[in-house]
Amino acid sequence: MRKIRKLSFLGILGVVIAVLFLIGISFMQAQVQIKGKPGSPPGLDKKESKEEATWAVRIPTQTEATNNGLVFYGVGDGYYEDSDQNVVVSVEKNSPGAWRRYFNFVYSFDFTLTNENVGSGNPPAYQVGFQNVPVLDYVEYPDDDKLCCQFPPYPCQDCFSDTCGASCMADFLTNEHPYSGVTGEEDYQYFWFRVNFFDHDIESMAIGESYLLGGNRDDPDDPGDYLSIVARYRQECFPPPIYHDVELYRNINSARAIVSGNPMNIMIERLDLDAINYGIECDGVWRIWVLPNDYQGLEGFLKVQERYCTIEKNKTKWYYPMVAKGNFNFYIDFIKNPTTN
Length: 341
Description:
Oligomer: single chain
Strand content: 25-35%
Number of helices: 5
Structural class: alpha+beta
Largest sheet: 8 strands, antiparallel
Radius of gyration: 27 Å
């Protein structure tokens, strides 16, 4: 009997030791989580501790644009720095994500303005503008059963493809964006300028070196490089919006462009800092040009489309009531690590 009691005591003691051991492990794990990973300051992960470049954008002022026949201009001094929650300027080298079948990396350029006063009828602090927007032609109506020309201040009432002309998109573009109307309902929430260059190391470009959007493509099946400029009404897709977005865009793959005879008229160039007079010290300036003609003399174009999204069967659905083409001429400069005097 005494032996059985002794064994029971030892069994209970073993259980207690095991529980204390597990508690000790949990405590040590908690301490590790509090302190952070080895080599990282407490409360700071690798992404946060990484030193990143700062970026700014410079666009010709309206006077400069007018004097040089450009359609895109910056409001005020045309300088936008990534230092405000309503102005985002970034250039990032990332994984190509879903396109890794074709590419190793992508350089993503992003310039986004947010209307902090959306819904109030008051203009935002930061805007850009278009002027002398060219005639838009080669008009198509991909979703011809959807309302088109739905832009402030005078949206077309009950208009479908047989009554819509692309001039309504040009008229709307010829404003400052994000657009601000008389009523808050007319306010647009965003304007963005985005370009993706795949497998071309932008930051290693030499001074004076240029590169065509979609250049050096051997595989005609790859998606190519991409430019997208959007006047965005609202971020939400439900319910269907009162007003529609306008997007200017091109997707270029040189192998396809040569076969189809399409122009390659979008270029990035690393500028000589001595050749510009911005009063800014920086680590480099890259100019993205949308040119009226390509290197072969072909007339260039951007596609211009009216679009909107809604929710159908719990999924986002995009519609494109109207698509056209236009011949544009403008540029935008991305500035790395600027220091203003």
